[in-house]
Amino acid sequence: MTPRVAVVMGTRPEIIKLAPVVAALGPAARPLATGQHWDAALTDVFFAGVGMPRPLQPLRGIGGRDRAGQVAAMLTGLTEWFRSDRPDAVVVQGDTNSANAGAQAAHHLGIPVVHVEAGLRSHDRSMPEEVNRLVIGAVADVHCAATAGNAEHLLRAGAPPEAVHVTGNTIVEATLRALPAAPLRAAVQEAYGVVPDGYVLATVHRPENTDDPARLQALLRALGGLGLPVLLPLHPRTRAALAATGAVVPPSVRCTAPVDHPTFLALAAGARLLVSDSGGVQEEVTVLGKPLVVVRRSTERPEAVDAGFAVLTGPDGVQDAAARLLRPGWPEQLARSSSPFGDGHAGERIAALVLTAARVPVLG
């Protein structure tokens, strides 16, 4: 009998990172969209990009609520859904409000919870994502850790050793599958009017950067001082913050509409440097072999920093960090380095663990 596995996703990164798991699960997968990201530019284009039909969306009115409202509404709605259409296992990914609510709803109903990308820790409880990670870690039955360091965090927190598995991160295969071929990358770069190795690609979306007008302006000023043209695809939150604060965008920084995943990767592959506050970008640059300035107070992905791909800094340190990453010979060394996040087979390993959790034998 084919198992029924609910795969909960609510944001753009979850769509990208869970696509390899959904593909590996085949007919067992039942993707559910919570509506946490409701903008079509952050959802529909990404479902299409990974070749996934738009999932069932049993919840309404989730997008746009504050964090407490989102988690409460999703927890109630998913509990009712799982009760009426009970799956054999529930898969959640990362540290979003959707993952938190999905994991709790399944746990309270006695449904096995599989946490993909488990064990990340920033040790900064002011980050909403860190609290989500801690909650999910407390209720998950199977922890799929991307790295040995992530697994160690879980073991130190008391997770049963038999429940912790180092699988690698699905971002590796997701990036390799979505990266356009060289001629298409060149066409994308030409369409955006940039010259390979002659521009910076930046993304800004975290509240710590968008919700503080002074910090947002300082970050824009830093981007303008890098000495290269900067492409800045705008997240809806960032666009709203720019409009609300009247922040001045330097002439060398060109804001664009959000881009889909293959387009972003094509632009990232041609950039000389990336500047971002995204967690996923910290992983993607290690697959692409590119240097990254991470503009955040803390990171839950020290592997990218430890491997030399990334430097963590605040807005005032962006230019110094860029100089370190672009020192002679270093970009070339990064281009030859392997990713610390796995070998590109995480989705297959995770699917096997999911089927075991669903008490269905894995067929060889």
TrEMBL record:
It comes from Klenkia marina. The keyword Isomerase applies. InterPro entries: UDP_GlcNAc_Epimerase_2_dom (IPR003331), WecB-like (IPR029767). The keyword Lyase does not apply. Coiled coil: none annotated. Residues 32-353 form the UDP-N-acetylglucosamine 2-epimerase domain. PANTHER family: UDP-N-ACETYLGLUCOSAMINE 2-EPIMERASE. Keywords: Isomerase. It holds the Pfam family Epimerase_2. This is UDP-N-acetylglucosamine 2-epimerase (Non-hydrolysing). Belongs to the UDP-N-acetylglucosamine 2-epimerase family. GO terms for molecular function: isomerase activity. CDD domains: GTB_UDP-GlcNAc_2-Epimerase. It comes from the Bacteria.
